[in-house]
TrEMBL record:
Annotated region described as Disordered, given as residue ranges: 245-273
Family: Belongs to the TrbG/VirB9 family.
Signal peptide: 1-24
Keyword ATP-binding: no
Keyword terms: Signal
Name by which UniProt lists this protein: Type IV secretion system protein VirB9
Amino acid sequence: MTRADSFRLSLAAFALAFAAPALAEDSRLQTLVFDEAAVVRIDGKVKVQTTIKFAPDEVIENVAIGDSAAWQVQPNKAQTILFVKPLEPAARTNMTVVTDRRTYLFDLVASPRNAPLYVLQFRYPELERAAEEARLAAAAEAEAEAARLAASPAEMAAANDPYAVADPASLNFAWASAGTPELLPARAYDDGDAVFLTWPVGTALPAILVMNEDGDEGPVNFTVRGETVVVDGVPPQIILRSGRDTATLTNTGPAAMSARSAGLTAPRKKGSQ
């Protein structure tokens, strides 16, 4: 599992924690939407501690309290949760909590008449939106993977290489090779409309040329599909050059197309219009 996958799963779990309705509401457990401009009031009661939970990816960096003698404030070892409780029955002060992501403002109010608050946690709309987007992306990815696995081998081959499912009987492998061995492809064949040349991985491609009806060499139109060079048209002969090295591929199969059909335009002779 990649780090991105782990992050998406964490976000999804975070969203589910707040998306599922509680079976029974408990006033001692509260959830508030985080607002950086709001002061959150915590009603305390002597001998009752309140747990303040922050976002799963948040770490407490600093806690400042106005009256540390009247209130006890203690983070957990991981610095992700804060425990707060009053030491005096009618103590009141403020508290600021700074994490590595946000700043929280609290008003701490203790009274014997207060209802006990056990847990206060926050919701973060931006994290919930990100979790929902991650969930939808994961669902789409799973659906695409399921469709890929359900596809037939022929459909998968066609998706990766339009020529992979061609009828073998229609292919011409009768191409004679000559010249410098290093320039020659490992495989050469045509389907009557194009020539397919495959070199070993990492091999530098030579110049691919054809000769027109006047005996002039020129470049040919071709495209590269995966590891295969697809030459436009089926010329009688293909010339491969690299520096002083030369090699040829000659079509010894069915009658070849003209060089012009293979994408070569004959260069103009001097003085021609």
